[in-house]
Design a protein that fits this description.
Length: 151
């Protein structure tokens, strides 16, 4: 155990979450200095007010060191199985390699299991080969190819 704790994100965490995401993003990232913009506040409110979404901050000794979003999706197939989707999973660069990411993912998987999900899925940028190895060590299968259409 690393002493990592988890809590629901607060609106005041938006700049920290954006900084964590920007540091782990390949390519164009949101600027953490824009965290006060209405679009981010609106997005935070939508997530916080929807019981099928959780925005989580991971802390070590009271300091935010990681974040992730968990979305719970109902499905019709597999006998109505719910799926947990992990998004924007990030650990601060200075804390990587210490087991915090593994602990955070295991915690999120257990949250999904407790919520009745029969599967947890996530996507990772194709260029992030270290992240792919990391997810495989935690038991994730590279079973599907993902596609996106940006507008």
């Amino acid at each position: 155990m690393t002493g990592l704790t988890f809590r629901a994100a607060l609106a005041a965490d938006i700049p920290t979450i954006m900084a964590l995401c920007a540091a782990g993003t390949i390519g164009k990232a949101d600027n953490p200095e824009d965290a006060g913009d209405a679009c981010y506040q609106d997005a935070f409110t939508a997530i916080a007010n929807d019981p099928n979404h959780e925005l989580i901050v991971a802390e070590l000794a009271g300091k935010p060191v990681g974040c992730l979003q968990i979305s719970y999706l109902p499905g019709l197939t597999r006998r109505g199985m719910w799926r947990g989707v992990l998004e924007n999973v990030h650990i601060s660069a200075d804390q990587r390699g210490k087991g915090l990411g593994s602990e955070m993912i295991r915690w999120a998987v257990e949250k999904c299991r407790a919520r009745g999900c029969g599967m947890v899925q996530l996507t990772s940028n194709k260029q992030r080969q270290d992240a792919h190895r990391f997810y495989r060590t935690l038991g994730f299968d590279h079973s599907h190819e993902g596609f996106k259409m940006m507008f």
